[in-house]
Amino acid sequence: MDKFRQQGLGVCVITYDSVDILADFAKRKSITIPMLSDPGSKVIREFGILNTSVASDSMQYGIPYPGTYIVNRDGIVQSKYFEDLYSDRYSAPTILLREFGSAAGTRQTEVKTDHVALKYYATTDVVHPNLRLTLVADFNLKPKMHVYAPGVQGYIPINFEVAPSPNFVAQPVKYPKSENLFLPVIKETVPVFQGKFRVTQDITMAADKALQSVLSGSREVKITGKLRYQACDDKECYLPQTIPLEWMMKVEPLDRERVPEPIQHKAPAGAK
After folding, report:
1. What are the tens digits of pLDDT across the range 144-166?
2. Residue 199: how many CB atoms within 10 A of its CB?
């Protein structure tokens, strides 16, 4: 919350649940941000995100497609974060990273070589099933040093790679925009990265059933990967390097406890 406030943002939640249901959930989970009840899904309809695939006589009717909006003081949507699957969610630190480049404040691993200083981390150290988070690698190359960008021809490009796992689905790696550098020694212009730059990759954790083996054991999941690059300066290229990467995540299960029966959603009349 402090990081959102530092960017001039407030945070609230809007759902179709009653005030009593929201109050019970907020107390159980120690939620301090405003949770707003939207009776009849009026605001949800105005945003155009009512889940119309749910039958109108279903007890679940009124649920929105879940997502996050960033809205300015004039009510204009600046950006939005929605997933294809209703169960998937963007983590708040990933949104902060994308919008403002905010550092996550999570555990960092530092690696230093003769060519580069690297810090890598995840936007969150605690994950839930279906959570979308970001793996981040921040680079700081030494002066006059460069690495080749993906797409270079005839040279070894930098490659950030996460090992496949049934515990998550990996999205494509995002590299920054490269710059074209003319190298007098080889008389070529090539795409490179220099100085400070950031590489990111989003991953979405598996559903809770796929994580059951983890949850029944240590409640931790390990993500591994590797970084391969070849650094060059204005005179020579050095031997390619491969750096192993590892992230340890604490896994928390979803809260499936129901609110007390007297305040639960009631099925519409005539519902099957």
Report:
1. 999 999 999 888 999 999 999 99
2. 21
